[in-house]
Design a protein that fits this description.
It is a single chain. It is built from seven helices and twelve strands. It is an alpha+beta fold. A hairpin with a 6-residue loop joins strand 8 and strand 9. It folds into two domains: 137 residues, Putative Large Serine Recombinase, Chain B, Domain 2 (Hect, E3 ligase catalytic domain fold); 109 residues, no CATH class.
Length: 284
């Protein structure tokens, strides 16, 4: 089915919209958005692979291997700016596709040509019939977009678990020694603790030595070293650790061992560092 053309182009300036590029308005006044051939090809390939049953992690890996630009880098390229930049305290020559990036792209109504704010169609931008005013020719028809959402929803039902990152003390503090990337908390079902683990695959990377460690052990290790160096606080928060430049690096554990493994972490694979803390904490 061929998508319908835009009812009326929206003039003015536009930010980064996946699959589109800025172009002069046909009227000669202002600007509009038109499909970007390179980005459109990438988007349609992604949609085809989702329908073919590939996971978002597998699709991200394929895109990274072929050198396809993420929306942020493609936008920079179109603007004549350098690719990459700084993210999570690390510098990248170019950004990589991740399952999270793909999810945002695939769930955005902008694929139908809708103007979007906070991932939702802007309800105030409609024509006299109540239909959304399009930013440009849609990349997917409404029926194709809704079919795609049904496929994504069917995959996620029963597999999405409550996100605990808000309660994870060491998010942004714990890093994997194998890939230098952040480690994230995951709850263990039926246990009062979880694990911090390498998430390279979720970033579209392959870690040569992915590490993981029990969350209670790692948090106790970090707090013990922190209290030895920093002035005591009533409660240590993630914000305090990040403020003082605390970082713990976790190397991959060894297989095997005896009952001693269950008594605590192997500290030989943990490395704690911290920037010099202030001599006196500011009073609240």
């Amino acid at each position: 089915m061929v998508p319908r053309g835009p009812r009326r182009a929206i003039r003015g300036t536009h930010g980064r919209v996946v699959g589109y590029r800025k172009a002069p308005h046909p009227s000669g006044s202002g600007w509009c958005l038109t499909p970007d051939p390179e980005s459109t090809t990438v988007v349609r390939t992604i949609v085809e692979e989702v329908h073919a049953g590939l996971s978002l992690i597998a699709i991200a890996r394929k895109l990274n291997e072929t050198g396809a630009l993420v929306p942020r880098d493609r936008h920079a390229q179109l603007q004549g700016r350098p690719l990459g930049g700084r993210r999570h305290g690390r510098d990248f020559e170019r950004f990589r596709w991740t399952s999270g990036t793909l999810s945002k792209v695939l769930r955005s109504p902008s694929l139908m040509g809708h103007r979007v704010h906070q991932r939702q169609t802007v309800q105030t931008v409609h024509d006299a019939t109540g239909a959304p005013v399009l930013i440009g020719p849609p990349l997917l028809t409404e029926s194709a977009f809704h079919l795609l959402q049904a496929v994504l929803l069917a995959r996620s039902n029963g597999t999405r678990r409550k996100r605990w990152t808000a309660n994870a003390l060491l998010t942004g503090v714990a890093h994997c020694a194998g890939c230098k990337g952040r480690m994230y908390f995951a709850l263990r079902k039926g246990y009062p603790y979880g694990d911090y683990g390498c998430r390279a695959t979720a970033r579209g990377d392959v870690c040569p030595a992915p590490s993981s460690v029990r969350s209670d052990w790692l948090e106790e290790y970090v707090l013990s070293h922190y209290h030895q160096t920093a002035p005591a606080e009533a409660e240590v928060t993630r914000e305090a650790l990040l403020r003082d430049g605390v970082r713990v690096t976790v190397a991959k554990g060894r297989k095997g061992g005896d009952a001693k493994r269950m008594t605590g972490p192997d500290t030989s694979r943990l490395a704690f560092t911290m920037q010099a803390p202030p001599a006196v904490r500011p009073e609240n």
